[in-house]
Amino acid sequence: MSKKVLIISTSPRKNGNSEILADEFARGAKEAGNIVEKISLCDKTVSFCKGCLACQKTQRCVINDDVNMITEKMLSAEVIVFATPVYFYEMCGQMKTLLDRSNTLYLSDYMFRDVYILAAAADNEESAMNGAVNGLQGWIACFEKVRLAGTIFAGGVEAAGEIKGHSSLKKAYDMGMKIK
Ligand SMILES: Cc1cc2nc3c(=O)[nH]c(=O)nc-3n(C[C@H](O)[C@H](O)[C@H](O)COP(=O)(O)O)c2cc1C
């Protein structure tokens, strides 16, 4: 059975390391027969949540930027994959801002069940992504039908594209391939 997979590349750097990781995951997931869509936040406008909570009544955000389009895609995806650079041992601000804005989904009949996180960092230690994983776990905890299904870390990569040939790329491809 094929699944609807939404991959969200959150790095502000186009064709950066985490986006390349996301592309490998997408390639595997497509090859396994899934319906895969990737979006990149680097060419989208993602403004800060205002905290007005109007979305809890309307399931839409009052801010007129690209986020309602993204959260509509999140709503109907069965699998969501976030790719992020590690910024100060956390997820990047763009990813956190999207998670805040996805409060529109909190009371909705969302379809997603499995969530993955892929992260790239200059640091070699896998623990460099712990802050990002913990942050995402906080979001997941608010969606009771959802679980963290997998994590992939690409360490020791700093300049854009430095990830080429990195062992994490095969791991991302294989993880994508396992989605069925
Ligand atoms: C603002 C900023 C903060 C960063 N903080 C960290 C950090 O805390 N730990 C780390 O290992 N790398 C850090 N980095 C390096 C990035 O994680 C690394 O370059 C990564 O490969 C970027 O991924 P991208 O190409 O997908 O944007 C930081 C980079 C920037 C721009």
Describe this structure as you would to a colleague.
- With 180 residues, the chain is of the alpha/beta class.
- It is 33% helix and 19% strand.
- It has helices spanning 17-31, 55-58, 67-76, 93-101, 130-140, 167-177; strands at residues 4-9, 35-40, 79-85, 114-120, 147-154.
- A five-stranded parallel β-sheet has the order 2-1-3-4-5, with helices on both faces.
- The longest helix is centred in the first third of the chain and has 15 residues, at 17-31.
- The radius of gyration is 15 Å and the shape is globular.
- Bound molecules: flavin mononucleotide (FMN).
- Flavin mononucleotide (FMN) is lined by residues 11, 13, 16-19, 85-89, 120-123, 128, 157-158, 160.
- Flavin mononucleotide binds at residues 11, 13, 16-19, 85-89, 120-123, 128, 157-158, 160.
